[in-house]
Specification:
This protein is mostly beta strands. The protein contains no helices and 25 strands.
Length: 297
C-alpha cells in the first residue's frame, strides 16, 4: 500500500533541538522527509521512531527533545509498528512481509522473519506485540496473526476464527495485550471494531463497547485495563476502560490536541503519552516535516 523508497540521505540528518524549549518538550522534531509510523519508549527517557519507506530507526530523548537517526535503512526493509522489549526493537515490515528484530544497544539486526509473501499486495505487516508467548504480528490484509515463540525462529501462522471477518480495506492494525499473551487486543481499521483474540487458537470476539466504533483505528496502547485507541484521520485518541476479561469496554473520553496531524501510534513514558504524526493527508516529500507530540490529557 505504501511504496518503499530508499532515502539514504536521511541517515545523515540529525535533529538536535525540539520545537519547544524546556524539559519534556510538547513537540519533538523528526528529520524532514522521515515518514514515521511507529513509536516505542526504551530505557529511561529514550524513544524510537521508524521510517516507513526505508526501515531506518530514529532515536531520541523525550526529556530533552534531542535525537538523530540511529539505525540505518536498507533496501528491502520498512518500519511500520515498533515495540521495545528487554533491550530489543521489534519492527513490523509492512508490504515486505517481514518482521525485524534489532539489538537496541548495538544496532545489530538479530532476526529477520519472513512472515508472509513479500510485496504481493496481499500482505501488510502492520504492528507487533511482545508477550511471554512470543511476538505477535498483525497483517492488515489477511485474517491471521503471526507468532514467533520465545527462542524460536519458526513463524507460526494463526488463522483468525470466531467473530472476525475480513473486509475490504485495512483490517487488523494495532495490537497490544496483557504480557501473558493469552489474549491480545486489536482494532480493525475499516470497521472501527475492537477484537479480543486468543493468542493460541486465533479465536476472536468483538469487544462490546456499546454503539461506539473506533473509525480509523490505528495504534493501540494497553496500560492495566485502560486501552488507548489512536484514530488517525480524526486526530484523536479514545480512552477505554476494559472489563477484567477484556470482553467489554466503556469509553471514558477522547483525547485531542491541536498539534496532532494524523497520529498513528503512541507510547507511554510514566504518565506522559507520546503520539507520532504520520501526516498521511500531506503529500510526502524530502522536505515534509514530521514530529512527535506530547499529548495533552
Amino acid at each position: 500500500m505504501r511504496r518503499l523508497l530508499l532515502v539514504a540521505a536521511l541517515a545523515a540528518v540529525s535533529v538536535p533541538v525540539a520545537l519547544a524549549k524546556g524539559a519534556f518538550p510538547e513537540v519533538i522534531a523528526l528529520p524532514d522527509g522521515w515518514r514515521p509510523e511507529g513509536i516505542a519508549i526504551g530505557n529511561g527517557s529514550t524513544f524510537y521512531v521508524g521510517s516507513i519507506p526505508t526501515g531506518a530507526i530514529f532515536r531520541g530523548d523525550v526529556r530533552t527533545g534531542e535525537g538523530a537517526p540511529y539505525i540505518d535503512g536498507a533496501a528491502g526493509r520498512a518500519a511500520v509498528g515498533i515495540e521495545f522489549n528487554r533491550g530489543r526493537l521489534y519492527v513490523a515490515g509492512g508490504s515486505t512481509g517481514k518482521g525485524f528484530v534489532y539489538d537496541a544497544r548495538t544496532k545489530a539486526l538479530l532476526a529477520e522473519y519472513q512472515l508472509a509473501p513479500p510485496n504481493s499486495g496481499a500482505t501488510f505487516i502492520n504492528d507487533v506485540d511482545v508477550t511471554h508467548l512470543g511476538s505477535f504480528w498483525t497483517d492488515s490484509n489477511r485474517a491471521v496473526l503471526y507468532r514467533v515463540a520465545p527462542g524460536s525462529t519458526t513463524v507460526q501462522t494463526i488463522p483468525l476464527t470466531g467473530e472476525f471477518q475480513l473486509v475490504p480495506g485495512f483490517n487488523l492494525n494495532g495490537i497490544d495485550g496483557p504480557n501473558g499473551g493469552r489474549f491480545l487486543i486489536s482494532v480493525q481499521t475499516a470497521t472501527g471494531t475492537l477484537f479480543r483474540i486468543d493468542g493460541r487458537s486465533g479465536d476472536s470476539r468483538k469487544i462490546d463497547v456499546g454503539a461506539t466504533t473506533f473509525t480509523n483505528g490505528d495504534g493501540l496502547l494497553l496500560a492495566g485495563r485502560t486501552l488507548y485507541v489512536v484514530q488517525n484521520q480524526l486526530n484523536r485518541i479514545a480512552v477505554v476502560r476494559l472489563s477484567h476479561n477484556l470482553t467489554k469496554g466503556k469509553v471514558l473520553r477522547f483525547l485531542t490536541d491541536p498539534d496532532l496531524d494524523v497520529p498513528t501510534t503512541l507510547a507511554r513514558h510514566g504518565k506522559r503519552l507520546y503520539a507520532v504524526n504520520a501526516r498521511f493527508s500531506t503529500p510526502p516529500s524530502p522536505t515534509t516535516t514530521y514530529n512527535v507530540v506530547l499529548v495533552k490529557q
